Amino acid sequence: MGIKGLTPLLKDKAPQCIESISLSQLRDKRIAIDISIFLYKSLSNVRYNGDYLRNSEGKIVSHIVGIFQKTIQYLSVGIQPIYIFDGKPPEEKRECIRERNQKVQECKQKMESEQTSQQEKQKLEKGTIRLTKEHIDDVKHLFDLMGISYIHNDVGEAEAYAAELCRLGYVEAVVTEDMDTLAYGCPRMIRNCIDRSIKRKDVVSCFSYESLIQGFDVTPEQFVDMCILCGCDYCPTIPKVGPIRAFQYIKQYGSIEMMIESGKFVIPDGFKERFEKSRELFQVFRDKIDITALPLHSSEKNLLGLRQYLIQGCGMGETKVQNALKRGYRVS
Fold first, then answer.
1. How far is CA 272 from CA 37, 235, 260, in A?
2. CATH number of this structure's domain 11-217, picked from the four choices 3.30.300.20, 3.40.50.1010, 3.40.50.1100, 3.40.50.1970
3. Taking the model in full, what pTM does it have?
4. Burial environment of residue 170 by CB neighbours within 10 A (0 to 12, 13 to 18, 19 or more)
5. pLDDT averaged over the chain?
6. pLDDT per residue over 242-270, tens digit each?
7. HSE on the CB side for 293, CA within 13 Å?
């Protein structure tokens, strides 16, 4: 989910922190990629006639094809991608996960209704997508064949780990759609272009943490408090406090503690403990990663094996695969 309403707040209060750039501007740079959202998008959007892409045996391969195409896009402009997988989420995210699972069940129930049209069912079906171990293992196998590195820790969220890699200077930027990456202190975050007037597929939106802090005129600690008040995955919100008021109140009071002490707000049960824990979670990997001993899984590319996997195992066309390899690996 990220931080509720953070993007429009940034566009309003600190527009200078958002820049539209071409992916080619990251040539020869190493970037960390939060893979989860791209897996979901591949399963949701890489389809044929509304259904998943499947191989000759009926196995779903939309996620494999989608991640392959995304990775080729990075390689074709000289970017070195490192994919980061989610580990076990913190206990504080349990309520958020429960809500997501509930929405999945609601979509499934609506799909079973006789009153639901086929077109509506296809839209609802996308709301039932959940990542499985098989999906993860499939793309790891793809990366092994492509010679692409990845990190999969036992615990911790991918964007949190990636943000610290960026803060330490190991990667140039973090590619994700989760805005809470900025709450983790990520210096440079890349997401799909938010400027709807730009139609080029190679243009993305780049968020600068330093410019954000300057534009908001807050401390890093105050920015985290503001994000918690906006609404994050770890903590309930204070009634009648949305993103705009969260910004205003942090500017006025300076911290969540001072807001509570003012006595002007209805504070939900357990909020104090949850917001304090949320602060800790937004610092979960701070100064705890040794970049000389990263759990980095690397492999040598196997282009022959990759061709066979994509054509025979995933049902991709030979010409399409060959053209992609030419773009990504400069092979004939």
1. 31, 9, 9
2. 3.40.50.1010
3. 0.92
4. middle
5. 93
6. 999 999 999 999 999 999 999 999 999 88
7. 3
